[in-house]
Amino acid sequence: MLQSLPPELIVDIFARLDLRSVLRCTQLCHLLHDIVSQTPRLRYLILLAVHGKEESGLPSALNIEERIATLSLHASRWESLNFASEYTIPMRNGDYWELYGNVLAQSVPNTTRIECEQLAAPTRGIAQEQWSIEDLNSDARESDFVIDPAQDLLVVAGNTFARRDFVPEEDLGYVFHIRDIRTGANHPKTALKPAFVCIPAEALNLNVSFFMKTAGDFFGVRVEYFDDNVLDELRIWNWKTGVLHLHLTGRPDEICSFVFLSTTHIIVAFQPTAGTFTDNPRLRIIAFDTPLSKETRIAQAKYTLALDLPSLMYNPSFGEVRLDCEPSPTWRPSTTLSAPFCNSPQAHVCIITILPDELPGCILAVPLETFRSHLHQVEPDLATSLAWDEWGPRGSRLLETDCQLVADLQVDILVYGTRFIAPVLEGEPEDEDDDPGVALVVYDFNRLAAKKAKTVDSEGAEPGGDTIMNVFDGPTVSSLSMFQHPVTTWLPYRRVLLPLGFDPEGLLIGEDGLVIIRDNKFFVKSV
User: Fold this and answer.
1) Range name among 12-21, 62-71, 181-190, 251-260 with the lowest pLDDT average
2) Chain segment 330-361, per-residue pLDDT in tens
3) pTM of the predicted model over 0.85
């Protein structure tokens, strides 16, 4: 039967299947195995899936064989941390910088200017490019902004208190300007006129902090007021229409952090503060697909799925629970680039940092696929809760890294796709007055790549040539004193070490490399 089908038809069918289905088919008979192994298009699609990539859909001069070679080179350079390009970018000594979509943006002190640089990505054929955004609004705080270069989007925080006599009452407060990252003008795709959204307030709070994220048409901000008499907030708008889709409030430390799971759901780290001493933080997946401008307390907010974290010895209200996941799961590369492939929306890990006061803390790595798989099994209108043992051990990996060392860095862009970077102390100092050396560990929580590397290693080959990469696919048991019980986790991962020889002041990671901050410079290392 199969022999009667044209090979071109079988190839076309396979190209529409997921990786697991294709690999199962290759085990059925020699015919299907040979078709897959001898068809460059199918080999490329399999390689993309293994490395957590997908076709960018952008014009490229590379043929299929050249794309296979490029993708293989990109992966091997990450595995060995063999960088193709290393250079420095001067720091402008501003209050803030951001790396997103391989664009490094930094504020310039005493100005309303933001400077941007497209970082080089030699393997994917992306060249350096520099530009700046001039003359942003005088009320803009250049220390608070977020970018999405693929959408030419720049959101800059500011306030209208200095102009209270000249603005409508509903526009008095903290504003978020929707700008074009290339020109600084109002973004052409927003219907807002003027192009901003507002959080009303009666008086300026100099201590207020904004934590902003974007995902497709949506922009979210968590606001910390550092005032026991004012509730912190989490708001999500559609930045194209200006419609408010979600408005959560909570006492200080209740809304710990959030990340986008999709363009319909967010994950919120929620810490009960009105409960008992042993109440633990938990994760809540909350839908925002329907506009809902009504203010809701986080403790009473409707959620789709709640997931318990490992039971702690006590309530970490005076510590930190932080979620990090970059880029947004819906991110796509800019159409101005010619990169043949990009990070897959399915290949993301959420890094959960649990850092109680005066304890070393830990990091929990959870693929977004873990959240999605459980979310797909519940009724949307029925709030479901899962205990840690129901979702965590097989769907995550606990790392006993030095969280305080991570927290001491100037920036927190330590995750991209399935990779996470963390500093570690390397050895003992030669002199008691010296600090121990710091190395960087790059973790990769791509399950397929870890499985492939383990298979290659078991056959007697070196998975990365001269690399120092290690593969971990067995269980680990943590007996940290912060937990009530030992915590076992299984998520496979790979790890490679990069000795530095100096203490970094900050770290950033992108799709094509690392950025190390030291001596008022950005040291860029690109694959």
Assistant:
1) 12-21
2) 898 888 888 999 999 999 999 999 887 777 78
3) yes
Contact status, residue 323 vs residue 258, Cβ threshold 8 Å:
yes
Is it true that the peptide bond before 486 is cis, omega within 30 degrees of 0? no
The C-alpha angle 444, 255, 233, rounded to 5 degrees, equals 120
On the question of pLDDT at 41 being above 80, the answer is: yes
CA dihedral 388, 393, 394, 395 (to 10 degrees): 60
SS3 of residue 220 by DSSP: strand
Closest CA to 187 of 143, 134, 240, 150: 240
CA dihedral 364, 366, 370, 371 (to 10 degrees): 90
b/e code 429-447 from CB counts within 10 Å (16+ = b): eeeeeeeebbbbbbbbbbb
Q: Give the whole-angstrom CA distance, residue 392 versus residue 62.
A: 42
In single-letter form, the type of residue at position 1 comes to: M
Per-residue model confidence as pLDDT tens digits over 229-251: 899 999 999 999 999 999 999 98
Residue 495 bridge partners (DSSP): 443, 470
pLDDT in tens, 193-212: 999 999 999 888 888 999 99
Q: Report residue 41: phi and psi, to 5°.
A: -60, -45
DSSP-assigned letters across all residues of 368-400: HHHHHHHHTTS-TTS-EEE-HHHHHHHH-EEE-
d(CA 416, CA 244): 28
d(CA 20, CA 195): 46
Cβ-count burial 494-504 (b if 16+ within 10 Å, e if not):
bbbeeeeeeeb
